[in-house]
Amino acid sequence: MQEPQYGADSVRDLLARIAASQKPCLSIMNMPPLPYLQRIPDLNTKMLEPCFTDPSVWDGFDPDLVSLCSPNLQAYRPPQEKLNFLHVGLPANFLAAACADDTHTQILRELENDIASIRLDGKDVPVKLRVHESLFVPLAKWNMLLTGNYRVITTDGPRSIRDAVHTNLELSREIYHWVDALARDIGADPADQVQFDKYANAALGLVNPSSAARAIFAGAPNIERVDKLVQLIAMQHGITYQSVDDNVVIVDQKLAENRQVKFYGRIW
Predict the structure, then answer these.
(1) Nearest-CA neighbor of 131 among 103, 168, 97, 92?
(2) Which among 141, 145, 163 is positioned nearest to 154, based on CA atoms?
(3) Which of 155, 188, 198, 265 could form a disulfide with 183 if both were Cys (CB 3.0 to 4.6 A apart)?
(4) What CA–CA distance (Å, rounded) separates 72 from 161?
């Protein structure tokens, strides 16, 4: 699921029971859960709560029991297909950060090995789990999201990720490197980051809008706001980037329009 869905009553209840169970959890959202962000030193997570549809759903979680996995693959469910059908447009690995407790990290490593041993029609699976010691490895997805996925959303409608990246390649490169630099400021290792040219080449095959764009232009009142999360973290470090700020405004406006339509739809 994506972050806005976790506020649904039945899911909220499930989350509360999971938190109370004190079981280790691995998130595969693009949006890091608040408890995971609380594991990052010197980060004021209270200031990041406006990025979440309902930050209170995470209140019961122990940060030491929450880890994050960056889903670097590009996948979506074609609208004409049945539930549980997922089209992988760009195979890539899930990059998981280690847990605070080595015992819990060992569970992830067992999953990593089990997935690696799977064979389908005599071949290994194209998407694997990779466990890393660094807390910051999942942040390597942020530059891709802000350079491509969120810039798909424009005032005139959605565009493909390919067009978002390649219409102005130099601007895309600047945004990508700016997010990279921010990730390093909060602790990321340059060795864990994906080079822009590799991403730009992969983006040539991403001929559909991102899931965030499809949701907005289908009328969704909320989407995952990694764009705003990165913006607010940067502000904590005293830095801004105009192109990122401009795109956050566009997303804010589109979501506000959707909420207004939904509100008046209920009245009339």
Answers:
(1) 97
(2) 163
(3) 188
(4) 14
The residues pairing with 25 across neighbouring beta strands, listed in sequence order, are 66
Q: Distance (Å, rounded) from C-alpha 211 to C-alpha 225? A: 12
Cite the beta strand spans of the chain per DSSP E. 25-27, 66-71, 74-76, 87-90, 94-97, 119-120, 123-124, 129-132, 153-154, 157-158
Report d(CA 153, CA 161) in Å as an integer. 10
The two beta strands, 123-124 and 119-120, are antiparallel
DSSP-H helix ranges across 95-158: 102-116, 142-144
Nearest to 251 by CA among 234, 231, 227: 227
pTM for the model stands at 0.89
Can you give the pLDDT of all 268 residues of the chain as single tens digits? Answer: 889 999 999 999 999 999 999 999 999 999 999 999 999 999 999 999 999 999 999 999 999 999 999 876 566 667 777 777 766 666 678 889 999 999 999 999 999 999 999 998 888 888 889 999 999 998 888 999 999 999 999 999 999 999 999 999 999 999 999 999 999 999 888 888 889 999 999 899 889 899 899 999 999 999 999 999 999 999 999 999 999 999 999 999 999 999 998 655 544 3
